Structure formats: structure tokens, C-alpha cells
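Task 17 of the worksheet. Students: predict the tertiary structure of the chain below and write it out as C-alpha cells. Keep your answer in the requested format; marks are given for formatting as well as content.
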Amino acid sequence: MNVMIDLCIVPLGVGVSLSAYIAACERVLAEAGLKTALHAYGTNIEGEWEAVFAAVKRCHEVVHEMGAPRITTTIKLGTRTDRVQTMEDKVRSVQEKL
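Model answer:
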């Protein structure tokens, strides 16, 4: 089953600059071959359920390996069975109505 998620991983106990941790997670997602769109407060990801959530788990492992003692993660997700829809399709649908 395909899934589209909005992922926000926040390492705790590592100071105020988080970009190195986010970059490490972005590398994990790229290595997994997932389609992503980085935005100011997270990353949109689409792909097969198992691959997406395996990559999320790997992000946690990598961020912990970098020294983060705690991580809080927020995930919003959606699935569809009636048709195939991409991240670009969703954005285009709204933009066409503006």
C-alpha cells in the first residue's frame, strides 16, 4: 500500500541547531529511494508503507547514533485506494483553485 506522510523529527538534548540531524535524516530517505519534499518544518514523503516506515525507523537510529538522547516525532499520514495521487497532484489541485 502506498502512503504519503508528513514527518517532523525533533532531536532533544542537542542544542538549538538541528540542521545536521535533519540533513542526516534526509540522506537516509534518499538512500531508501523515497520521493521527498523538504519544507520548513518537516519533510513530505511518499512510497510503499513498509519502505517509508523502515526509513523513519532508520532516521531515529541515525539521529540517536549522532548523540541525541531523545527524539520526538510527529507524523501525519494518508492513504488512498480509489486512485493514485502524488504530492504534486495534491498541491496542483489546490493551486488550480487559487
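Marker's comment: DSSP finds three helices and four strands in the chain. The first helix runs from residue 19 to 31.
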